Amino acid sequence: MPHFIRGRGKMLAIATLVVLLSIVPLLGNNYYTSVLLIIGIHAIVTVGLCLLMGYTGQVSLGHAAFYGIGAYIAAILSKTYHVDPWLAMVVAIIATAAFAFAIGFPVFRLRGNYLAMATLGLGIIIWILFRELDWITGGQSGFLDIPTLSIGGFAFDSDFRFYYLVWGFCLAVMFISQNIVGSRMGRAMRAIRDSESASQSLGINATLVKVKILALSAAYAALAGSLYAYYVGFIDPPPFGFLFSIRLVVMAVVGGLASIWGAIFGAASVRLLTEFLHPFGDIDVVLFGLIIVVVMILSPQGVIRGLGDLWRRISRRLTPS
Amino acid sequence: MADILQMKGLTKAFGGVIAVNELDLEIHEGEIIAIIGPNGAGKTTLFNLIAGVFSPTRGQIFFHGQDLAGTNDYQRARMGIARTFQDVRLFGNMSVLDNVMVGLHSRSKYGMLSAAFRLPQGHREEASIRLTAINTLNLVGLGQRADINASELTFGQQKLVSIARALATKPRVIMLDEPAAGSNVLETQEISDLAKRILEMGITVILVEHDMRFVMGTAERVVVLDSGEKLAEGTPSQVQNDRRVITAYLGEQEDQI
Q1: What is the tally of structural domains in chain A?
Q2: Does residue A321 carry a pLDDT above 60?
Q3: Domain limits at A255?
Q4: Angle formed by the axes of helices A184-194 and B120-139, nearest 10°
Q5: What distance separates the 2 farthest-apart alpha carbons in chain A?
Q6: Which of A179, A187, A205 sits opposite B102 (nearest CB)?
Q7: Which of A229, B157, B177, B250 would you label with B95, given CA atoms 20 to 30 Å apart?
């Protein structure tokens, strides 16, 4: 079975990735560590978006909202109400998933462009709430002094420590997602993407599957959001706005919409590009628009798959037949 | 013979256009019945009404004597009403085997949690899903093509996969929408044989088809629809010689045949 052969190469690639990831913080460069840490957090959100957009075929232009809800719930519970940060994180994940589950039913009455507009609007509404409910969220001036996570006496209070925590979660999320995609649920998701009417004719409740995947991806986003809040110790509305939603879509597209591990590559590309372009202001936004267009035209299955195809084509041409 | 499906005064209007009009029709359990009629006679609309894609404007549909009102398409699929589509609608980015395995979705139940953490229940079910899907694929003669992408099959093969996919739901009745359209003589014969094998499995078969030779060689009973109304009903030869049927197909011309 070709799937299995590819699986072997994939395992090797994953092992390499894990080794590389564990080495980086040991280099002792805090900048690299923190950049990679953020990439890990973003990759967690991106995987969820890939499940929703790439595998189930449902667009979301408002995923930053779930990321933000997770961050704010974790921050507010742990700081304002002195809830244990781990418990606050669990509550944040469950509450965000429940919220996504509830709004999923009306939202998925819509399809295509209308769905995109609805999620866009939802993201903006939530973002405004973060900004305007200032007696809870701190509004524009932000929410300060969020406690950090700790196990027993061991606090995740340095980049070095938090790094391993984030990537531990990230890899767990990757494996879980990979398992789901390869399961009965994953088949139903792809079936809905390819033909919703045919999937329903086979007894699949398409709306329920979509809503479940939305809830799962919201749970991932909330996990990432709470990790972000605990890591930075401070949150304010801008990172959870519309632009971040778009950036998430770029990450998913670059990594390959229907590719779990590609999410890491996508998150890394976008983050690194943003870092490099930082001195030039907001030019990265323009570039991201361009990237989406180019990737969708040249290699809709993602940059990695595209490069693989290119390599195969070149090597075929170079081999004398 | 007991009726597996009963339509009573079934009517479907799209705005001012009446696609199915006051239709009374019984489908007997364990028969192959063909529904024929000129284009726009309401055949596919009837399928969509039975499958629960449309809800009727008026009238009722009974399945094993139970009123189907208030149930939707995926619920009816789970109750045992399967269908194929005129335009096939395979899952084009999935393997042939995966397409058939999707058909077993509602006949298995392990959920996201078992999948996420690879619990034994999922493993067990997955093994049996795979085996059943391979067997079903062999039934339509495409076992050798299990691992290729569904979109790489010929049109005729795609139709067969869509039948296998529908059979995988373990239906009591299957509706085949133009199964022989676009097929050559040999393939048409294979599909006819397949329909009879499906019947032998205890599944009632309803066909919509334009190929008259196929219909006459496959169906035991034929219902003719015209403008959403039942024009004639009977054995293939009865229907073939019915003057109203000839008129509906060929227009008002005396001494035509």
Answers
A1: 1
A2: no
A3: 8-318
A4: 50
A5: 72
A6: A187
A7: B177
Residue A16 at interface with chain B, using a CB cutoff of 8 Å: no
Query: What ipTM does the predicted assembly reach?
Result: 0.93
In a domain, A211, yes or no: yes
- Contact state of B102 with A204 under an 8 Å Cβ cutoff: yes
Interface residue A212 vs chain B (CB under 8 A):
yes
Structure tokens at B150: 């569904």
Give the Å distances, CA to CA, from B183 to B54, B124, B209. 29, 38, 12
Segment A112-118 mean pLDDT: 92
Residue A24, pLDDT score: 83
Domain B1-80+171-257, CATH among 3.30.70.260, 3.40.720.10, 3.40.50.300, 3.40.50.970: 3.40.50.300
pTM attached to this predicted model: 0.92
Query: What pLDDT, in 10s, does the model give residues B178-217?
Result: 998 888 888 899 999 999 999 999 999 999 998 888 999 9
Amino acid A176 reads I
Which residue stretches of chain A are H helix?
Answer: 2-23, 30-49, 63-79, 85-107, 112-132, 134-137, 159-181, 184-194, 196-201, 206-232, 242-255, 262-277, 283-298, 303-318
The two three-digit tokens of residue A312, written as one number: 């195969």
Residue A49 lies in a domain: yes
Which CATH number belongs to the domain containing residue A241 in this structure?
Answer: 1.10.3470
Query: Cα–Cα–Cα angle for B210, B212, B214, nearest 5°?
Result: 95
Residue A143 forms part of a structural domain: yes
Give the pLDDT confidence of B123-134 residue by residue, as tens digits: 999 999 999 999
| Domain residue ranges in chain B | 1-80+171-257, 90-170
Determine the residue type at B46.
L
- Compute the nearest-CA separation of A118 from chain B (Å): 25
Residue A69 lies in a domain: yes
